[in-house]
Specification:
The protein has one domain. About 80% of the residues lie in helices and about 0% in strands. It contains 13 helices and no strands. The chain is globular and about 50 Å long.
């Protein structure tokens, strides 16, 4: 049952990048699309948790939830959704896999926590992979907006890394509260901020939201991408260990690149393909020490 849940989670996370791409390509304002997605998904999950008695309404008004929402949802997905107007879904997925490397760098450089040498090697390998992925298209005059999109995705992962480290402290402070409820509330906060950003920066035309492709993308991202995917992630954490579910980062980027190329006819050069594999290799090396200490019999058995 654990492996089935894990495979579904990898499939969901690997397809969300293409679903985002399909949505923004129909003309839906990216910030509005992201904001509605996360607010609605968080709102539904939160009230399910309240109804089940696993959290209280007062959680919404805690400042910790707002700060977490700024990192994990607002900063991460404002940049990702905007960038996917110009960057392929496969490239976006691979660049998003740099999150663990940035977590390691923040822990080491800012928080002064010692990390294993192999983890640092993984960071260097990952950075090299980013250059391999981007360099074939490095012509700022012709592809300047594409490069800006790539850079913004990495900035978004800085938000994600910072938010993840902060969320770890918050989860300890709210140990009696369901992690799903904590995630739901931060999604609501992040979603509201994204909607506010949209109101001030985007030309909102709601008829774009009614296009079949936009509705399909939005429904998939709300139900599967945000509600089912994250719920499966926390269920797997409870059933196994925080390390095992995080290995979706090794599988989903490759799946996203393949789906983008096959189903959406996204161009993929051989240099970019090698760059994508190199970034995934770097992610594996970053996780290597924790993977060694994980009890895999709990998953297989």
């Amino acid at each position: 049952m654990v492996m089935i849940g894990y495979l579904f989670m990898c499939l969901i996370f690997g397809t969300t990048f293409l679903a985002i791409k399909i949505g923004v390509d129909t003309g839906v304002p990216p910030f509005l699309s992201a904001g509605l997605r996360f607010f609605l998904a968080g709102f539904i999950l939160f009230w399910i948790m309240v109804w089940q008695g696993k959290t209280k309404v007062g959680l919404v008004f805690r400042k910790e939830m707002l700060i977490t929402g700024i990192g994990l949802t607002f900063g991460t997905f404002a940049t990702l959704y905007w960038a996917e107007q110009y960057v392929t879904s496969g490239t976006a997925a691979v660049l998003s896999a740099t999150g663990p490397m940035l977590i390691l760098l923040i822990q080491s450089v800012i928080l002064k926590k010692k990390a294993a040498a192999k983890s640092f090697i993984g960071c260097l390998v990952g950075v090299f992979g980013v250059f391999l992925l981007i360099l074939p298209s490095f012509d700022f005059q012709e592809n300047g907006i594409w490069l800006v999109g790539c850079f913004l995705i990495i900035i978004g992962e800085v938000f994600y890394a910072s938010g993840s480290l902060y969320a770890k402290q918050v989860s300890g402070k709210f140990a009696a509260t369901s992690p799903i409820a904590l995630n739901a509330v931060q999604m609501m906060h992040g979603g509201i901020l994204l909607i506010l950003l949209s109101l001030f920066t985007e030309d909102i035309r709601f008829h774009y939201l009614l296009r079949p492709e936009a509705l399909g993308s939005f429904f998939y991202l709300v139900v599967f991408g945000s509600m089912a995917g994250h719920s499966l992630y926390y269920w797997l954490v409870a059933k196994t260990n925080p390390v095992f579910p995080s290995t979706w980062l090794f599988i989903s980027p490759i799946l996203a690149v393949s789906l983008g190329a096959v189903m959406y006819h996204e161009y993929l050069s051989w240099q970019s393909g090698i760059g994508a594999l190199t970034i995934v290799l770097g992610t594996v090396l970053v996780h290597l020490e924790t993977l060694k200490g994980f009890n895999w019999k709990r998953v297989v058995g």
